[in-house]
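Protein modeling request. Please complete all fields; requests missing the sequence field cannot be processed.
Requester role: graduate student
Desired output: 3D structure, C-alpha cell encoding
Chains: 1
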Amino acid sequence: MILFLPFWLIVWAIAEFGVTYHLFSAKSPMTTNLFLAVWLGGWTAGGGLAAYAWLWSVFGKEVIVLGQTNFKTKRAIAGFGPAREYDLADMKNLRIDRRPVSPYNFATAELFGGGKIAFDYGAKTFGFAAGVDEAEARELIRRFKSRHRFAEADAE
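Delivered output (156 residues):
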C-alpha cells in the first residue's frame, strides 16, 4: 500500500482536476454537469480517504498511556491527531475485540480508531491498539491488568 497509493493518487489527481476543469469550463447539458458534480464529490471523498490511509501507513502512530487514574489514547499523523482520555474507574471489560472488522463500521475499522483491544465506557465500546496481533493484544491486556483492576462487564 505504501508504494501503490502514491501512484494511484497521481492518477486520482489527474482525474480530479480534469473533471473539475470540464465541469466549470464546458457548456455541457445540466444532467451531465449534475452527474459530474455528484461523481466528483464521491471521487474527492475516495481520494481523501486514500491519502489519509497512505499518511497513516507512513507517518501514523498510536500512543497509549495508562496513568494512575486515567487512560489516554492518541492516534496521530506526524504528531497531529485527536487524543482521547478515559477515567479508569469507568472503564469496564477490557478484552480482545473479536467483532468483525468492517470498513463500513468506524468503531471496528482500525484506520479510524478501532483496534484489537476493546473496553466498555458508559454505553459505548471503544477500541485501541491498531495493528497488533492477538498474542500482542493478550500481552498488553495482561500488563494493563497487572497495573489496574478493570471492572468486568455488567451482568444483563
